[in-house]
Please model this.
Amino acid sequence: MYEFDWSSIPGALPFLWEGLMVSLEITVIAVIFGIVWGTALAMMRLSPVKPLAMFAAGYVNLFRAIPLVMVLLWFFLIVPQVLRGAFNLDPNTDVRLTSAMIGFALFESAYYSEIIRAGIQSVPKGQVSAASALGMTYAQAMRLVVLPQAFRNMVPLLLTQAIVLFQDTSLVYVSALADFFGAAYKVGDRDGRLVELLLFAGAVYFVLCFSLSQVVRRLQKRMATL
Model:
């Protein structure tokens, strides 16, 4: 019968903490960039200019049809070469974190784009007409009238997608980057306590994600009463 031994965890906490910070850093950067670029993509998809709408639709469909782990592998292999060539970096410079951030940001922006597009479409079209009657341009109406209302409706979905993104950061193991999951795996493999470390990592993911999901649920209830 397997005997659990959790003695490796206390000494590994600083290393695990560093890994958790890497996971959170990737999540924050990808969320910020994903929302910004996703908003631009959503606006392009709703644009009457066909080339813009076709580009945005192609972008979204491409990234939503490819597994995230494959995207991360592509960027792990391509981005370092591009960065080293463009900035004349030392071949030994570690750009795995940058590659992971770019890969996650571009991938997640496709999903944020669909959330934001649905949020924009949930705002009554009469709002744009009313803004036009007040002398606003289409861009001003979107920026000052439609997008504020749309983002208010989308906050729970955007936060939920951020939770999913945090969970997906564990996939950066394909680039041997020491995120939280990767750090736990390395310690467990080193000490011969892989089961214990992966169970501990799973418990941490559960506590963090469950807590955040409860925050989202309360936010949804509060917004429903407004």
